[in-house]
Amino acid sequence: MEVDHVVPKSLMPTLAKDFANLCYQPRSINREKSDAVARAQLRAVKIFARHGIVPSSTVDRIQQLQGFSVRAACMVMPGAVAHLKSVPPLCGFPASATDPRVIIVSLGHLIERIADWEPRADSALSTADLIQRQTAEHLTRTQALLSQAQSRAEDDVNATRRLETELANMHSRGAKEMSRAEQSMDSADGISRRSRGTSHHWRREGKFAEAWERRAEQRESKARDQVDKAQEALNRAENALSNAEAALERARHRTRPAGRDSQGKTIYEPIDTTPYENRVREIEDRVQRCESRLNTAQDWLHQATRERQAAEARVGACAQAVKLANDAEAAAASALQSAHIAMVAVERASEEHARARALAEQAGKAARLALAAVSVFAKHTTQAATFEMDAATNLQAAQNHHASSRQRSTLGSMEISWRVEQLRAFDGPINEC
Amino acid sequence: MTEDQIWLRQQHDRLADEIQRCRLSFAELREHRKAITAVWNDACANEMNGRFLNPMVEEAAASLESMRLQHDALVRCGSVLIEAYRSFVQASKASTAVQGHIDESAAVFRTIDSFLNQAISEMRSADGHANRADQLIDDAERAGNSAQSEASYRG
């Protein structure tokens, strides 16, 4: 609540200190109310005129101004307003420093103002204290955030360093595996060439061996024919020998008349077997020659058979070698394929490593950005702490000043009230005291 | 701006309003004091003014000024806190990006590791095949040479 003038002070200053012209108003209405001359003002002036506080002519003047604000009225009807400003109250107390009633009223208002001011200032300081604490809490939370952000930024920097280290390790490992893959590739390539060469060599040797085997077979066949022929000749010679020996035996038993003995009997003598014996000797020679020829043929056959067997063995060995060389070639091809896959894998690892490097660079950049932002964050937080401290210092000063002011106002109000009471008692009749 | 910051700014505005109201009330008080000097200017007035009212008004004015300075400092503090929070958001975003890059890098490292392990396995396999091929070549040589050739047969 506030105390307000019914007739605006700007319109009739002489009524400003008159009790009759004062009224209580809600603060909001009082603040919104202008200095307009409305029905309430006209009604109040009429009452004042009826009770002789203002001249009755004033009512007419006020009626003329109804609907205007005093400021507007000054512009529209300066004469009327000037007249009203100088209208003295008829039965009001003249403004005098020595008039105790005026002083009592004025000091009463002063005490009211002081009483109004005190809780307002208390409330403002209380609000200031509350908001100071809220701001401090906000700052504390921000400082906690800063601590988190700093810790996180530090973690980020460490993480990016670990990332760099891991990247370097990966690079080293990749380079090593690349070198090994190249070696493996070279080795597989060499073994592949060697296996192909071996295979080719033994295929060629196999062809030579087959040709040799065919020749050996032909020789063996020829030798076998010769053995057969020699055997046949021997058989024939042996048959002839048997026949010759049989003929010789028969010849040895045969006789021929050689004359007559004394008795006239025919004398028989053995026939000459020499031809038979010659024949036997001749055939025996022939048998020996046949046997010799057979032996020779059999030796040849034996040699031819051995050679054929050697050629066959060679063919088999070459075939086995070719088979093994083919297996080696297949194994070398597998080695080459594996080495190739290894090389491709290492190359892809290298590509991925390049990608990881780009990511590490981005991470490093972002970490530096985070660090810079945290640095700015820290700077702002420090500034905020400084401002908060300034505010706290000023609040403390405000509280100290207010406490002093409050003390003076309380004592002053009490003193003035006491003196007003004394003045009122002095001004009143004895029986009222 | 976060809800907290908006709320804090509203609180600062509220304090400003409170100080402004206090200042108006104080101005009215001073105005009233000034007004009553016309009617109250005796020795008592001088004494009351000297002992109580003047010091009270001076202290109140100083208190109001300190509150104004406190409010100004709080407003600056609030503004700097907003800036600080912006930096925090930037740092958080950057940090999140770092974490994202690191996670992605870890995935890439796992891929690299997988490729290198595959390469090692394949190289081991290649070495095995090569050794076997080497052995087979030796076997082939031995098998081929286990039988005499025509030339050696004939001496």
From the structure above, extract its key features.
heterodimer, A: 433 residues, two-stranded antiparallel sheet, 7 helices, B: 155 residues, 91% helix
Explain what you see.
The complex is a heterodimer of chains A (433) and B (155). Helices cover 81% and strands 4% of the residues of chain A. With 433 residues, chain A is mainly α. In chain A, β3 and β4 (266-270) form a beta hairpin. In chain A, α2 (39-50) runs antiparallel to α3 (57-65) and α4 (70-76) crosses α5 (78-85). Chain A starts with a strand and ends in a 6-residue tail after the last helix. The model of chain A is unreliable at 90-97 (pLDDT under 50). Helices cover 91% and strands 0% of the residues of chain B. Chain B is built from 3 helices and no strands. Chain B has helices at 3-36, 43-145, 150-153. Chain B is rod-shaped, with a radius of gyration of 48 Å. The mean pLDDT of chain B is 92. Chains A and B meet through α6 and α7 of A and α1 and α2 of B.
Q: What best-fitting shape of chain A do the alpha-carbon axes yield?
A: rod-shaped
* Largest sheet data of chain B: none
Largest sheet of chain A: 2 strands, antiparallel
Show unreliable segments of chain B. Answer: none
Q: What's the average pLDDT of chain A?
A: 86
| N-to-C CA distance of chain A | 30 Å
Q: Estimate what percentage of residues of chain A fall within beta strands.
A: under 5%
Structural class of chain A: mainly alpha
Q: Count interface residues per chain for the largest interface.
A: A-B, 136 and 101 residues
The tally of helices of chain A reads 7
Computed over alpha carbons, the radius of gyration of chain B is 48 Å
**What proportion of the residues of chain B is helical, as a percent range?**
over 70%
What's the SSE pattern of chain B? HHH
| Strand order in the sheet with the most strands of chain A | 1-2
Oligomer: heterodimer
The share of residues in extended strands of chain B comes to under 5%
What gross morphology of chain B would you assign? Answer: rod-shaped
Tally of helical segments of chain B: 3
Tell how many strands the DSSP assignment of chain A holds. Answer: 4
Low-confidence runs of chain A = 90-97
